[in-house]
Amino acid sequence: GQPDTVTPTGVPTGAAPEAFAQQGAYLTTAQGTRLRDTDHSLKAGPRGPILLQDHHFREKITHFDHERIPERVVHARGAGAHGVFTSYGTAAGLTRAGFLAAKGKETDVFVRFSTVLGSRGSADTVRDTRGFATKFYTDEGTFDLVGNNMPVFFIQDAIKFPDIIHAGKWHPDREIPQAQSAHDTFWDFVSLHTEAQHHTMWNMSDRGIPRSYRTMEGFGVHTFRLVNDSDETVLVKFHWKPKLGVHSLVWEEAQLASGVDPDFHRRDLYDAIEAGAYPEWELGLQVFPDTPEETFAGIDLLDPTKIVPEELAPVQPVGKLVLNRTPTNFHAEVEQVAFHLGHLPPGIDVTNDPLLQGRLFSYLDTQLTRLAGPNFHQIPINRPHAPVNDMLRDGFHQHAVHGGVAPYRPNSLDGGNPFPAEDGFVDVPVTVTEAPKVRDLPVSFKDHYTQVRLFWKSMSAVEQEHIIRAYTFELGKCYEQAIKERQLQCLANIDPVLCASVALGLGLPAPKPTIELPEVTPSPVLSQVGRQWPAD
Ligand code: HEM
């Protein structure tokens, strides 16, 4: 028969996490001994020193001394909520993943929204990218969609992640600024590493200061591969569309909110759910043929600094997300949740996007430190809602009491640990070329400006005005004139009007472009003004 394996099971649907260590009416020690007094330590007389034998004192203080865990190396500041994802069944022909394929199928989810650069205690309304990470507790294993509120990223190769984050976080000498990109190191990097210019303009646009988490779009950014029951594949990009539409703060509002209520977004999410105004998003897919070139309309689908404009590939709705329950305990849920791009159910697979590939390594690696050891998948918020029968054993913070004697395969003692191959995850057998090993990127990745110009040209006049003011303010905080001048050169390669306007604000001359500016057709869906959003 099956091995006698005992592992923690998932939190039941709709239930709050277990209230471990808060049972019974009376205060106890961690060992369950009832307390008479937790207000006074045990002393050698009322005026004497505290006695070493006071176990309750030592237990209470020692535990307190170790209450903090490291904040995330990025996305430290966040808020989260539970909810339900309901599939429309419209993706049935594309993927064998049941939570997407079966019409009406409901799946529990947990979502964590975040800023990227600020520390855990920083303000919510700073100009920054926002994380939008969703854990789907599917019957076939957990699926994590770890996205942002912007569809492009600063870098094309994951090996540059420490560089962009070192440049974007505070100055090493004075640890300022806490949470925004108004400083020399940020502009130094993005003006030298020009593939960052596209994401930077999204940051300088109104998208960088969302009104609320409820009014943000979400993007998986990378291209993923879906596989159906007939082993046919398509390439897709994931999009979240907020039911309330996309709304931003104006800059002055964001500054005021930072001071008056640094928890502005966190409070908004919590208050809305508690009031029954459940935030909703539609999940949609842009779907592309899985061709050997992995391009669509001349756009390289493996380049995470590029979008595919929605008028070229419409976003097709596949399901609905409703957030309907606030966390019971912030630490247990929002802080301890651990997302990973490799958490994929059968029917969804990765591509060779060199940013995605590096992320597959980084998240587990950092969580081994952040959550102290290899067993954080047993923390309630991280437990799959599918049965778990793995051969992972022991280690720090092991809570499972595993039975059986044979956590290895093949074996003849615990039933052999069979796995039915037809239901299991299959890595899509994509051909890996016979090209030599190189430290390089495709030539198609070398165009750093066309889509930034496309974005700029797609903005309404008022959005362009906000972008000009944002560049002017943020660059105005730089100490080094050479950095401002280098960024102005980047702006000249995007658009002369943009460059001249920012240069005027900075009191510097506007440089000429060093490239031929490409013709672009403005994309109506990039502007927030006048967009249609999913109806009921
Ligand atoms: C955390 C998104 C690129 C490393 C996060 C989080 C999000 C996110 C949403 C917060 C997760 C949470 O709420 O717990 C993205 C997106 C990227 C990207 C959309 C690009 C498209 C990268 C890259 C790396 C990386 C290239 C490294 C090579 C990390 C790390 C964390 C993190 C180490 C902290 C995870 C933890 O402590 O649990 N990212 N990220 N990210 N990201 Fe990324």
UniProtKB/TrEMBL annotation:
Biased composition (Low complexity): 3-16
Family stated for the protein in its record: Belongs to the catalase family. HPII subfamily.
Residues of the full protein shown: 53 to 588 of 746
Keyword field contains Oxidoreductase: yes
Keyword Manganese: no
Ranges for domain Catalase core: 28-417
Task performed by this protein: Decomposes hydrogen peroxide into water and oxygen; serves to protect cells from the toxic effects of hydrogen peroxide.
The EC number(s) this enzyme carries: 1.11.1.6
Domain of life: Bacteria
EC category: oxidoreductase
UniProt entry keywords in alphabetical sequence: Heme, Hydrogen peroxide, Iron, Metal-binding, Oxidoreductase, Peroxidase
Organism this protein belongs to: Actinoplanes sichuanensis
One Gene Ontology term of the molecular function aspect: catalase activity
Required cofactor(s): heme
Name recorded for this polypeptide: Catalase
Catalytic activity: 2 H2O2 = O2 + 2 H2O
